[in-house]
Design goal:
By secondary structure, the protein is an alpha/beta fold. The chain contains 11 helices and 9 strands. The protein has an 8-stranded parallel barrel with strand order 2-3-4-5-6-7-8-9, surrounded by 7 helices.
Length: 323
């Protein structure tokens, strides 16, 4: 079992993105465009879930490791907030000249769209805590399914009340984020992980209804590969103004470029809208049995975490250059 005896839904409900350090010189990577269009002026990040289920002071060496691979930043999983060491993490990020985003989810009992008012209150409190910790670490973005716990299903479509509560609580969280100078990005998930938001169009509708420049949409190519008719078209529809974060995840969570995601079209869309924030690889550590169960990974999806990180980064930079 995961820490505190979590199951798949429990972990993903608790666990699962830039950066004061991102403002440091050298954090941005500009890939030349051989097709004559505008180059992608983005930063590349790696979600540390590829190495660890729980990020604590004991894993700070991962920051330098990822920096040595050529990344501009890391994405830190926020599950058990009590194990995070914001001060030590910020120091490690600044030493490595790395940016940071946080990969955040809602725990069971903290749903911002729950029918229970106390649970909604707990959800807003958790959102505010994750914003504050990210800011303390020197981060820039809080991203993920911030509207409901992952794996929590109702057996029906979302209701008008649930939508209203999402708008209210995400609006309050966005006000808190504005004071902390943090960006929020809500991530639609596939139908097997949530019923609240599955497609980017609905996320965009929710963001526009809230109406804060601190609340944006996160696109994840793994989920989009399942739910969207056309991922590239969805990216264009969200546009530069509202696309706040981007997860580059292969169709099987393996090495980007080895599956069915239509990467050329995806990168052409990112270029078309002038996307200039994070492109972050997300996968999961296959060597941690409970994390594999949490992510429903029942077979090897890559040869090694280091290989995924290095090969994935090279592929994404090639795509940014040639798409």
């Amino acid at each position: 079992m995961l820490r505190d005896g979590l199951t798949r839904r429990g972990f993903l409900g608790k666990a699962a993105l830039a950066t004061g350090a991102a403002a440091l010189a050298g954090c941005e990577t500009q890939a030349p465009d051989t097709k004559g269009g505008k180059p992608l002026n983005v930063r590349y990040g790696l979600n540390l879930l590829v190495y660890t289920a729980t990020f604590s002071k004991d894993q700070l060496d991962l920051i330098a490791k990822v920096a040595d691979m050529g990344y501009d930043g890391v994405e830190i999983p926020f599950n058990d907030l009590s194990v995070l060491d914001a001060k030590a993490t910020r120091a490690a990020l600044e030493k490595a000249k790395m940016g940071m985003t946080s990969c955040c989810v809602m725990m069971p009992g903290t749903s911002p769209c729950s029918q229970d008012a106390d649970e909604r209150k707990a959800g807003l409190k958790r959102l505010q805590e994750m914003i504050d910790i990210t800011a303390e670490m020197g981060g820039e973005a809080v991203a993920g399914p911030l509207y409901a716990p992952v794996g929590q299903m109702s057996g029906r479509a979302r209701t008008d009340d649930e939508w209203k509560w999402c708008v209210e609580n995400l609006g309050a969280a966005a006000e808190h984020a504005k004071k902390a100078n943090i960006m929020l990005a809500i991530e639609p998930l596939n139908r097997f992980e949530t019923y609240v938001l599955n497609i980017d169009a609905d996320a965009l509708k929710l963001v526009k209804e809230v109406g804060s420049d601190r609340l944006t949409v996160q696109v994840d190519t793994f989920h989009a590969n399942i739910e969207e008719k056309d991922t590239a078209a969805a990216i264009r529809a969200v546009g530069k103004e509202w696309l706040g974060h981007f997860h580059a995840s292969e169709s099987d969570r393996g090495v980007p470029g080895t599956g069915q995601v239509r990467w050329t079209e995806v990168f052409q869309a990112l270029k078309a809208i002038g996307y200039d924030r994070w492109i972050t690889i997300e996968s999961f550590a296959t060597g941690i049995l409970d994390l594999c169960a949490a992510a429903c990974i029942w077979r090897p999806i890559y040869e090694s975490a280091d290989g995924l990180a290095r090969d994935g980064l090279k592929f994404l930079k090639d795509m940014a250059r040639t798409a």
